[in-house]
Amino acid sequence: MAISISFINMKGGVGKTTLAIQVAHAADRADYKTLAVDLDPQANLSQALLTPEKYIRHRAGLEKLYSCLSGEAALN
Predict the structure, then answer these.
(1) pLDDT tens over the chain, length 76 residues
(2) Ranges of each domain in the chain
């Protein structure tokens, strides 16, 4: 059975990214299959979890993802 955990708050600086990193790390250490999804345009979670090379490629694709989620572009 899959478990989904979301950290949502409209205010910045309340620890959402820090909490997401710690929970993902704890789940991984407990041998759970773990997927951390970062939808924040600042991409701090991605920056913390990816290697620099992968982060650069990730940042290049953020605008495309936003366009798909906002309905401006189709997801192919």
Answers:
(1) 899 999 999 998 999 999 999 999 999 999 999 999 888 878 899 899 989 998 888 777 766 767 777 888 776 6
(2) 16-69
